[in-house]
Amino acid sequence: MNYKKINLYELTENEGNEIFLTGWVHGIRGSNKVQFLQIRNSGRIIQAVADRQTIGEEEFEKVKSLKQETSIVIEGKLVKSEKSEIGFEIQVNSFSVVGSSDGYPITPKEHGPDFLHDHRHLWLRSKRQLSILAIRNELSFAIRKFFYENHYVLIDTPILTGSIGESAGSLFSTEYFDLGNAYLAQTGQLYLETAIFAHNNVYCFGPTFRAEKSKTRRHLTEFWMLEAESANIGNEENIDFQDKFIRTILAEVISKSVSHLKVLERDPEKLSGYIQKPFKRINYSEAISILQDKKETIEWGEDINAERENILTSHFESAVFIRNYPKSIKAFYMKENPEDKRTVLCADLIAPEGVGEIIGGSEREENYESIVQRLNEAGLPVDSYSWYLDLRKYGSVPHSGFGLGLERLVAWVCGLPHVRECIPFPRLMGRLFP
Ligand code: 4AD
To answer: E strands within 52-200?
Structure first.
């Protein structure tokens, strides 16, 4: 018989065909007459039915002895199945083993998070993990598509850098030949700022690094950040654009990920509810008053911690932009607010359900003297910013931008309590392996 080689993303067009599928045994159960194999291919799982009468006594005994994660080849007929999650199943004619598997450590029983993270290289094959990383894939694609369609040019910014992007306190550094220390990029922003003079609207999307000694549920030492920078837009227009960006990509990803959200027991309706109308915008001072009204002991000037961010998103029942934080707790490049010099023109987008800040953005200080003063105040070495300061000498313009943490967005969409499952190989203070 002529079997057609397929993958599990091409089922509809192969209905009724005699097919050839390679995959892994995700699970197996059955009786002495019939065995049901769960076969994984391309991040999807299909049931393959092996019937004693059809495949013969000897082959049937071999099927019964197949172990979890054995890689196999199946030949059989692809048929529609109402009961199946994927809509199809395979009636097996024959099979062969490609690679054996014995004693696979991750079994259907419960395992603790440390055990699972120690086996992350294998855990990626588990059903929930398939869905989380499939949703991450959708988000990454939707992000790139959004920026492409909005005429933003991708600028790949360097990972090894000589200037400090955010703060001196959380730098990974390494020796760099005869040139002293190189730092792993905390942000691509300063390089994006150079590129707006060439392309107006630019973005970067890549790994960034923070040597933060925080063991919270939302900090990684290596995380993926989407950053965008635009010439000639101010803080409010920057917020408008972020609002459109997040609500557009979420709508797209929710509609494409319904089956994955179901695996994660995440209600797509609830998620869609968050993005029906623009996110609320409040000023930092207003946020402090709301918290004080709710009997929180917080003073103007203090940063808003995770718990309090959660109080605010619960109050507004969705994500909320908090604008114009105190200058003293924000980065050197943010533009001073002309209406209240204690604050800067910035906004953080805080996501609900304990996810917290997913975006940090601001209008940038475009004046040469002012930014030199801010660098000095922050105790940063002005010399290593000479190239950045040139931008304020040659055709400086008002400009704004923002950064979105991909893992926190994945956590929000998937309804996960911790960002460590939102990246294939998390890097945490206490984890560098596998
Ligand atoms: O607020 P941050 O530090 O902003 C910047 O780096 C700016 N240079 C961005 C820009 O304006 N171009 O970080 C931006 C976002 C945060 O809102 C958060 O979502 C994420 O990056 N983030 C982290 N995610 C995981 N682990 C960490 N340690 C993170 N630190 C920041």
So the answer is: 71-80, 88-99, 153-154, 160-161, 173-175, 181-184
